[in-house]
Design goal:
Elements: E1 2-7, H1 11-15, H2 18-27, E2 32-37, H3 42-46, E3 53-56, H4 63-71, E4 77-80, H5 85-93, E5 98-102, E6 113-115, H6 126-132, H7 134-137, H8 155-165, E7 171-176, H9 189-200, E8 205-211, H10 216-225, E9 232-235, H11 240-247, E10 252-256, H12 259-266, E11 271-276, H13 283-286, E12 295-300, H14 304-320
Parallel strand pairs: 1-2, 1-4, 2-3, 4-5, 5-6, 7-8, 7-10, 8-9, 10-11, 11-12
């Protein structure tokens, strides 16, 4: 069976779709898993051995062009995890006979199977809602999947090369101060540099601060604030897959709830993650696809006094690592 899984939004959102792809492949290895993704996620999708083919929707070509590309793939059924009118109409025009999606937005009129989920109630995590949609196709499907979900044969080589380049002899704790995705809360850059200094005091770990390719200003600011320390500053310019391989070797990854947090969790790296004090942006909704035993979540309070208390508690945690 040719099964199309659609998730055309940001990095973290796409990673919440990967367990769905995995269990569909596990259910029947003969299933051909095709994903429709945003350009950002092309390389990561291609790196997953449980995905057979990738189609990119860049939103620039016409909906008719997208539908023609889908038609050529001879898709039997589609599962759209997060819909919009464009991808819904393209599937309809492509003549996919069974089209499954959550019953939300006007776009639902283009699907044959509209599943009421009410994700805003956050009765489960985003990736768990995604998994639930597979039961419409295979009611008896096993939703469990091996963790970490993604492994690389050459990850150790990438990590060792990075360590050699930067003369690293200790385990790495990484801070990622960037802000993006659905994240609604984070510490300031000054607070991140203070956390990094606290971790340095243990003298047990190498501290690395990581930045996305478009975060040069954040990189420059943090580097200036931490001048004279042993902190290493790294801008990820070699693509998502290379960054994922590097992350898999880290002892701990500390960030807000953004795409890089989900990427670190995808490859099994322990995480400390900061979330907003709201149901929509909470850890209940956006917990990662990694084993829960290696996830530590903090909901940053809006109250300044409670926020200050939490910050001191995190500093103590880092000092005692």
């Amino acid at each position: 069976m040719n099964i199309l899984v659609v998730r055309t939004d940001k990095l973290g959102d796409f990673i919440t779709a990967l367990p769905t792809c995995k269990v569909l492949k596990q259910y029947d290895p003969k299933n051909r898993i095709i994903v429709c993704v945003a350009p950002l996620n092309l390389s990561l999708a291609k790196a997953c051995d449980f995905i057979d083919e990738v189609i990119v929707d860049d939103s620039k070509s016409s909906v008719f062009e997208l539908s023609r590309r889908l038609t050529a793939l001879h898709i039997d059924v589609s599962i759209t995890l997060f819909s919009n009118t464009r991808v819904a109409l393209a599937q309809f025009l492509a003549g996919i006979k069974k089209r499954i999606a959550p019953a939300t937005k006007i776009a639902q009129i283009f699907y044959t199977d509209r599943i009421v989920q009410r994700r805003s109630e956050v009765k489960m995590a985003e990736f768990e809602y995604n998994l639930e949609l597979t039961k419409t196709l295979f009611p008896e499907i096993d939703l469990h999947f091996e963790k970490p979900l993604l492994k690389f044969d050459d990850a150790k080589e990438i990590y060792e090369s990075f360590s050699q380049e930067h003369s690293i002899t200790k385990e790495i704790i990484a801070f990622h101060p960037g802000f993006g995705g659905s994240s609604d809360a984070n510490w300031t850059l000054d607070e991140y540099t203070e956390l990094a200094k606290t971790a340095l005091k243990t003298n047990k770990y190498q501290i690395v601060m990581t930045f996305g390719p478009d975060e040069q200003k954040l990189y420059d600011y943090c580097k200036e604030k931490l001048a004279g320390t042993d902190v290493i500053f790294y801008i990820s310019r070699d693509g998502l897959v290379n960054f994922a391989k590097l992350l898999s070797g880290f002892k701990l990854f500390i960030s807000t709830s953004t795409g890089t947090y989900h990427l670190a969790a995808l490859v099994g790296t322990p995480t400390i993650t900061f979330f907003a004090e709201s149901l929509f942006a909470s850890s209940a909704r956006w917990k990662s696809v990694s084993d829960e035993s290696i996830q530590k979540h903090y909901m940053i309070p809006q109250d300044e006094g409670k926020k200050a208390e939490m910050f001191e508690a995190i500093k103590l945690l880092l000092f005692l690592l």
